[in-house]
């Protein structure tokens, strides 16, 4: 037997239960992973609350973890027993001491990275990778806006953008987070109470922005569109404040022939070649020192409810992990 955090109904952090479950055995194409660290991400909240529906209940949530391959099924060539691995794609189920994963969803974790870094960087880091390298490929000399710049994705995205030569505007909720953001590549850290559009207009000399990367959702939607220059791109990749409400597509025309996209990591890493390329790009930029992965919070896996409360209260900064 092993243990996992499961939900039996949708709701608040109190729905997270520490359950004893059978230890699974890998079938053809699968690997059994003994987790060493589990990533904590806001998408976990979406699944817990039911914003994103699960196939059935009870269910183990979680998208990301690192660990060691304990056993493999037939026809597995991607990994071997004893390999250090990490992953950040479906199916959900990482909040567990052990779990089965399809071997083609695993990537080998470089020896230079700890298990904690591996669990903390895969989902957030590969999200940053596709956002800034594929969804809207930021270039040197551009001024860009990153919401929630002191969060897990935000800190990675800000560092990466600065590495590429961008001027980075980042929004944060407190002055302490503003200082953290500045330490990670943000040139202009703005508080949620600031007049965002006016500040962006001042910083850009009225030119406004080619792109906004927004994980907040409902609360920042309108102001984000107003920060864009004509033909600008709104990249809405999260809903921390709630989902973006339905809107008249004509607004995009009125505000300057804008583009809007709602990307997901699952789509960008659906093919194994894309998964490996994304992970390697991330490993390279971290290994070079251009992007630093710091785990600022950790909790025992069995205390996942406490971690969720802190995450939803915006008490966390950077990356967080759960330790089995």
List keywords for this structure.
seven-stranded mixed beta sheet, 2 domains, 10 helices, six-stranded parallel beta sheet, 324 residues, Rossmann fold, Quinone Oxidoreductase, Chain A, domain 1
Q: According to CATH, what is the class of the largest domain?
A: Alpha Beta
Shape annotation: globular
Radius of gyration: 20 Å
Structural category is alpha/beta
What helical percentage do the residues reach? 25-40%
Determine the strand fraction and express it as a percent band: 25-35%
CATH fold name of the largest domain, please?
Quinone Oxidoreductase, Chain A, domain 1
Overall domain count: 2
CATH superfamily of the largest domain: Medium-chain alcohol dehydrogenases, catalytic domain
Average pLDDT for all residues: 95
Terminal Cα span: 14 Å
Give me the strand/helix succession: EEEHEEEEEHEHEHEHEHEHEHHEHE
Total strands: 16
Uncertain stretches of 5 or more adjacent residues: none
Strand count, sense and barrel status of the largest sheet are: 7 strands, mixed
What is the tally of helical segments? 10
> What would you say the CATH architecture of the largest domain is?
Alpha-Beta Complex
